[in-house]
Amino acid sequence: xxxxxxxxxxxxxxxxxxxxxxxxxxxxxxxxxxxxxxxxxxxxxxxxxxxxxxxxxxxxxxxxxxxxxxxxxxxxxxxxxxxxxxxxxxxxxxxxxxxxxxxxxxxxxxxxxxxxxxxxxxxxxxxxxxxxxxxxxxxxxxxxxxxxxxxxxxxxxxxxxxxxxxxxxxxxxxxxxxxxxxxxxxxxxxxxxxxxxxxxxxxxxxxxxxxxxxxxxxxxxxxxxxxxxxxxxxxxxxxxxxxxxxxxxxxxxxxxxxxxxxxxxxxxxxxxxxxxxxxxxxxxxxxxxxxxxxxxxxxxxxxxxxxxxxxxxxxxxxxxxxxxxxxxxxxxxxxxxxxxxxxxxxxxxxxxxxxxxxxxxxxxxxxxxxxxxxxxxxx
Length: 379
What we know:
Layout: H1 5-16, H2 32-35, H3 41-55, E1 61-66, H4 70-73, H5 77-88, E2 93-98, H6 108-117, E3 130-134, H7 139-152, E4 157-160, E5 175-179, H8 185-193, E6 197-198, H9 206-220, H10 225-250, E7 254-257, H11 264-275, E8 278-284, H12 289-296, E9 305-307, H13 311-321, E10 325-328, H14 330-338, E11 343-345, H15 346-351, H16 360-378
């Protein structure tokens, strides 16, 4: 993180929450003396990077993340990355992106990070088809999807980002993109500019979502519908049994979603379609119809969908709706709890493994747990 200590501290604190998402990063901070011109900022950056790499020789990719605009930190991180690459590449690849201006939602950080990696993806030598799953997934979820793709006969399959930064997937005109996270607008467009083709789909949340997501890839590979149904049947059966125990808790309950993570629309589809919940309002920071149109089409007719953040009006609508559970950011959760509402932190939905069949019941439990807590407190 490069910037004022205050900004870098805030980003580092947010990144610290990623401990739940198996982080693969380290952090170094430049102090205010650099911003005041008391030291050569480039010289100081070079020193800190060299020190970090000497302490962590296992690092193969290092991101320079600007926590403030370049005119504030007095550094052009793009040029700094080029200079440092001349010194450390190929042992270490150094990339950069801006953490400044990530104001719509913190998930833009992943989008910016992956977008920075797109230019260094190797070009595919031919146009033979390959599948690239785009978006960070927990290792266990990635393994489950890999097994299902193998059983279906879909190959080769690459995950972006890869587990090891050195194993970057190649990209070309034969690359088909299956997006696992709905907030990767810039990344998907950058991959398409490299020649890849987007496979429009809903997201692998819940049984129906995972089935449709896998079906999209299977159709692109011409997999027989009977083979597809037979392949997913055991996983679907397990998921149905596990999910049933939470449907009775959630069915008929009203949920209000404040805009926070850009996961709101796929989550709402899952809650309404598979758990029988009533959607009071679905708020989301930003709607990219390229990535969300299939999900929007599956929301119940008449669903109130709001884009952007007008917190006072949203609070008024939430109080009027009197939902059974409210999904919101940390800043709203405690005040709403004090008003007697049941809340769920939206940030936990980003940092939890919720994609895939084996996680469908876990996802439902995240919503059922606060309701059960409220029930016990009333008793």
